[in-house]
Design brief:
Length: 412
């Protein structure tokens, strides 16, 4: 089975979607050629080194044995993919408990984290492709000190795992010098396209999630057949046409809280890939039904500058029956049925308001479909970037802020 992409409410028909076939085919060829920089993720699900997967699973099993608190240190592409998978698929309450650090520079957040870790057996994984990013750099220093203080230098080294570039950066130097178990971020894969490398797979595997299933899900979405059957290409065209008609914001919507970080990952993927040279669709995310009671007003009745991409989970993992005391209209119904009524009710209301909608049907929250979703959106995002004439794999704006922040620190 595959995730389904439903364009019926997108205000576009197949003919309109096919119009950009020529441009799209060129983009498809660029991706498949293997010659474009930073497109290593395109072939990754098929070509990923089997020995690397075994090493990741072995390290994950060691981590699970050694600790009850595992801290993933990283930001942006070195953080969001793993968190998206763990929040979507991880079992609540299972050990080790996973914490995140270095995705902000808040002293309060990190002080509270250190407090929370007191008395716990700890392992940490620092993830940074460049090995020079400020946020994870600070968090790593804090947590390394904690480990050395708690276990001594030798044992601390055995509890530190690093994922970074093969050759360059201070993190690579330190990992090699200190003998941390380390993994490589392939040089032809950028941060936000790296969830199916050790960047995502190590923390995801520590959380007890089946990474083989995830990779076979991604594989299923490779090498799309005919143009009109390439869902990612069609989605890229739909986005581009909607943008040309004044829909400058894409609102990702989900009705399952477990998808919150997946939506964060989507915001990063599209925002950082497309938002350059004065171009790009602004990616936003809303969680329903919560945000229906706030932003729902704007969507229905406000300035119509957006389209919606609905992440619809067909079979959520759990369900409950609404008790009798909830009143006769609701009593005895399954909560998932009520939630589904919200999905279709909101769509009906937004149809009346003329909001274009694309629905992504996700059969279930499993590693297999997570892999499919990741590959589908990465491919769609890359093709969208090609269509709008930007490089979807660089992030000059992010580099700009990093440099300016270093200057401010130096001058103050
Ligand atoms: O997608 C990207 O390239 C960025 O979001 C990076 O992942 C982020 O800036 C972190 O960089 P690094 O992994 O070098 O610490």
């Amino acid at each position: 089975m595959r995730i389904g992409i439903d364009f019926n409410e997108s205000a576009l028909d197949k003919g309109q979607l096919a119009e950009k076939q020529k441009e799209l085919s060129a983009g498809q060829r660029r991706l498949e050629s293997g010659k474009e920089a930073f497109t290593g993720w395109v072939r990754l699900p098929e070509e990923i080194n089997k020995k690397e997967i075994i090493r990741i699973k072995t390290a994950a099993a060691d981590i699970r044995r050694k600790c009850d608190a595992f801290i993933v240190i990283g930001i942006g592409g070195s953080y969001l993919g793993a968190r998206a998978a763990i929040e979507m698929l991880g079992k609540k309450g299972s050990l080790p408990q996973i914490y995140y650090a270095g995705h902000n520079i808040s002293g309060t957040y990190h002080a509270e984290l250190l407090e929370e870790l007191e008395g716990k057996e700890i392992c940490i994984c620092v993830i940074s492709k460049s090995g020079t990013t400020t946020e994870p750099g600070i968090a790593f220093a804090l947590l390394k000190d904690l480990l050395i203080c708690k276990y001594g230098k030798e044992e601390a080294r055995r509890r530190i795992y690093a994922v970074t570039d093969r050759n360059i950066g201070v993190l690579r130097e330190e990992a090699d010098r200190e003998g941390y178990e380390s993994f490589v971020v392939p040089e032809d894969i950028g941060g936000r396209y790296s969830v199916l490398t050790a960047v995502g797979l190590l923390p995801i595997s520590v959380a007890g999630i089946d990474i083989d299933e995830m990779l076979s899900g991604a594989k299923k979405m490779m090498k799309p057949q005919l143009f009109l059957e390439d869902d990612a290409a069609m989605y890229a065209v739909a986005r581009s046409r909607l943008f040309s008609s004044g829909k400058v914001i894409e609102v990702f919507e989900s009705y399952e809280p477990r998808l919150f970080y997946f939506c964060e990952w989507l915001k990063q993927l599209f925002g950082e890939s497309e938002g350059k040279q004065g171009k790009g669709i602004f990616p936003a995310a809303l969680q329903f039904s919560t945000d229906l009671h706030s932003m729902g007003q704007f969507l229905q009745d406000g300035h119509q500058i957006f389209f919606e991409t609905i992440l619809n989970v067909e079979e959520p993992p759990e369900d409950l029956t609404v008790p009798e005391s909830a009143g006769e209209h609701l009593a005895g119904l399954s909560m998932n049925r009520v939630n589904r009524a919200a999905v279709y009710g909101v769509m009906a209301a937004h149809r009346k308001a003329g909001v274009p909608m694309i629905k992504i049907d996700i059969p279930a929250l499993t590693p297999y479909y997570f892999g499919q979703l990741v590959y589908f959106f990465e491919r769609a995002c890359a093709l969208s970037g090609y269509l709008s004439g930007v490089n979807p794999f660089d992030q000059p704006g992010v580099e700009e802020y990093k440099a300016e922040m270093r200057k401010v620190l130096k001058d103050s």
